[in-house]
Amino acid sequence: MIQLSEVIPELKSRNAKRIAVQLPEGLKPQAAKIAKALKNEGFDVLISGDACWGACDLSLDALAWADVLVHVGHTPVTTEKNVIYLPFQQDIPLEILESAVPQLRQYTSVGITTTIQHAHQTKAICKWLKDHGVNAVIGTGSSRTPLEGQVLGCTYASAKNAKAEAYLFIGTGIFHAIGVWLATKKPTFALDPFADGILQEVSADRLLRKRFAQIEKAKSAKTFGILLSSKSGQGRRELAERLAGLHENAVIILIREISEMQLRNLGFDAYVNTACPRLALDDQSRFPMPVLSPSEFEIVLGKRSWDDYIIDEILP
């Protein structure tokens, strides 16, 4: 649910007249409705039509026209002037957790993780599970994930801070659940609240086999492009500079949108991603050449062993 009633008083208190609105892809169909509601309150409205995948991807150029940018869907990952964040919340019926109880009871503690739309329910989820015999715990997040139990594709601090024997991820898909497994190396289950509460234990084995193949392929590369994002919450300049210093033919590439066409045109044999960590792990099939994470690049160069493989995270 998008609660515009929470943001309109804040806009008026700032004496804002022109409002830019940014929505992630899944919420863009709500753009016309949001614009109408804001216009009815007397604001001029601009909708950012560019692709948006998170609060790390703010449309700050819209502030050349607008007094305030309202970013809908996420909590902040950076502090920006004249940006208001309006998280998207979606309730799930707690009874959907029943299918998870038999498997979770076998563990001494189970860390609860989820994405932003359900993070407001983590305490209620934890209580429900405890009432049904599961010792559920919630870990504190980080500056990028301020809500308890919240995870992003770029950080799993709340999972690691829970220090549990096993983990439950509540949300659609298994990407974040696999990330929890990689970050904690503990048994991890995924429960999709919109698929009849189907519970599955996840494993990163298939992903790791694919990553190993890309690492082996990259060992024959002669040139490496170090991708440095120009997006508001993805730029890791110090990391990019450190990685570029590991190989004589590594060059930093400043880039906003990373696409197959861009990487083909740039012509490097392989790339190292310091932008959104999800790019290398989840989108490799889009690219004909290896796109490595920082730790994978270190493995290619013999600076790290495969046994020390770690998931890439953007840390505070």
Poorly predicted regions are: none
Number of strands: 13
What is the spatial order of strands in the main beta sheet?
A: 6-5-7-8-9
Elements, N to C (H/E): HEHEEEHEHEHEHEEHEHEHEHEH
- Percent of sequence in beta strands: 15-25%
Shape: flat
Question: Can you put this structure into words, describing what you see?
Answer:
With 316 residues, this protein is α/β, with parallel strands linked by helices. It is built from eleven helices and 13 strands. It has helices spanning 8-13, 31-40, 101-104, 122-131, 157-162, 175-184, 205-218, 237-244, 260-266, 278-282, 294-300; strands at 18-22, 44-47, 68-73, 83-87, 110-114, 136-137, 166-170, 188-192, 198-202, 224-229, 250-255, 270-273, 291-292. The strands form three sheets. It has a five-stranded mixed β-sheet, with helices on both faces. The longest helix has 14 residues, at 205-218. It is flat and about 60 Å long. The model has no long low-confidence stretch (mean pLDDT 95).
Write a brief structural summary.
By secondary structure, the protein is of the alpha/beta class. The protein has helices at 8-13, 31-40, 101-104, 122-131, 157-162, 175-184, 205-218, 237-244, 260-266, 278-282, 294-300, and strands at residues 18-22, 44-47, 68-73, 83-87, 110-114, 136-137, 166-170, 188-192, 198-202, 224-229, 250-255, 270-273, 291-292.
